[in-house]
Write a structure and sequence with these properties.
Structural class: alpha/beta
Order of helices and strands: HEHEHEHEHEHEHHEHHEHHHEHHEEHEH
Strand order of the largest sheet: 2-3-4-5-6-7-8-9
Low-confidence stretches: 259-265, 392-396
Strand content: 5-15%
Largest sheet: 8 strands, parallel, barrel
Helix content: 40-55%
Length: 396
């Protein structure tokens, strides 16, 4: 697997200072946790999931979740389970017949309702089970957390490669201030017991909003909703500390359809004009018409706050999220300098861009993360940025 593999050699050379490196569907979880990028959620009742993968309908898709929980009605659960089994069987046969390479299938996860459903599907999936990278645990809490991981551990006993769990934090005991820290402490205790099976932690901001009967508009980010921002801050504080080392994925951006705009567009013209000149305005206009400007603003805030990757619910979000995960040339040069000078002899060095001072010890953890991202997503050339990948050719 390799990000932006669909680009020509010439396009890669033009855009990347360091091109993305290939990784494996069965790579170590420390790599996979960073490699999920834009994770596309879809209802498990969707009929053409396997066919879309076989036809490579979305060539930039690298991770996906088939949802058996909130994305489908309660009266369609059995139908959803049958469809999941059918999709896995179709893909398994295609791999066996050489119609698609195992490594060309996106990292696939199944969002289940409870541990019993996870065990039931695993038993029935047979050969198709090995195509799953893991399960998503909804409404993860003290009440169900151990049960989820115990079931996952049982499933792993019969597998050659590990399956991982991705807990979603989205319950009221986490959102409500009077119970939040105690709940986060209990959850951390559970995750610590099953650390080798935790791929990353996800945040369910939509469920959080529902507890207050609110919903953000397309002109606002999740950080503009104060009660959610407050909770997100505590989640990040608790789980992304260097000594704990969990990767936490950002909440979903809900908008993708066209509509009238109320507020002034948030996406500046300059990044587009710097790369494409006057034609950049047209590319920017296309993004604005698809609500991508708000998504880009939110992803930038996600990254500034320590999130890695993002849940998405529409294919048009895949490329913008992934393009924003590519490391800038300035970040890469700073990180390289910090790593190179981590020898105990230097305390601070001036940056390659002559615009900041890089302190070795305080910035070392940041630099290590940047180097991991640079291998997975690549590094832009000095004069390139995320707009370099947002052309019509690769946007579809």
């Amino acid at each position: 697997m390799q990000y932006f593999h669909y680009l020509t050699k010439q396009e890669k050379e033009k855009i990347f200072y360091t091109a993305p490196q290939a990784f494996d569907r069965d790579s170590h979880k420390d790599i996979l946790a960073y490699a999920l990028g834009a994770t596309l959620y879809m209802p498990s009742t969707k009929e053409n999931i396997a066919q879309d993968i076989l036809s490579k309908k979305h060539p930039s898709l690298m991770s996906m979740v088939m949802c058996l929980e909130d994305a489908i009605g309660d009266d369609r659960v059995e139908e959803g389970e049958q469809m999941v089994l059918q999709q896995l069987k179709q893909l398994s046969i295609a791999v066996r017949n050489g119609e698609i390479d195992y490594q060309d299938i996106p990292l696939m996860f199944l969002r289940i309702r409870d541990a019993g459903q996870m065990l039931r599907i695993s038993e029935r999936a047979q050969d198709g089970l090995h195509l799953l990278t893991g399960f998503v645990f909804p409404k993860f809490s003290l009440k169900n957390g151990i049960t989820f991981f115990q079931a996952l551990k049982q499933i792993n006993k019969s597998l050659k490669k590990p399956m991982y769990g991705m807990p979603i934090l989205e319950t009221k005991d986490i959102l409500y201030k009077e119970t939040r820290l105690e709940s986060l402490n209990y959850i951390h205790h559970i995750l610590k017991q099953y650390d080798d099976l935790v791929l990353n932690i996800r945040v369910g901001a939509t469920d959080f909003c529902s507890l207050f009967g609110i919903r953000r508009s397309y002109s606002m980010t999740i950080y503009d909703i104060t009660v959610i921002r407050d909770c997100i801050g505590d989640i990040l504080n608790y789980f992304t500390r260097v000594e704990r080392g969990y990767v936490v994925s950002a909440p979903v951006w809900e908008y993708f359809s066209n509509g009238e705009r109320v507020l002034k567009p948030q996406l500046r013209q300059s990044p587009f004009e710097e790369i494409y000149g006057p034609a950049g305005r047209k590319i920017r206009a296309e993004l604005l018409s698809k609500y991508i400007d708000g998504l880009i603003r939110e992803v930038l805030l996600d990254q500034a706050n320590g999130f890695m990757g993002k849940t998405i619910i529409h294919p048009s979000h895949i490329l913008p999220v992934q393009a924003l995960n590519v490391v800038s040339h300035e970040q890469y040069m700073d990180a390289t300098s910090i790593m190179d000078n981590n020898n105990g002899k230097v305390g601070v060095v001036k940056s390659h861009y002559d615009n900041k001072m890089n302190e070795i010890k305080p910035h070392l953890s940041w630099a290590e993360k940047i180097m991991i991202k640079s291998k997975i997503y690549g590094v832009y050339h000095e004069k390139q940025n995320f707009t370099s990948l947002l052309t019509k050719k690769v946007y579809i």
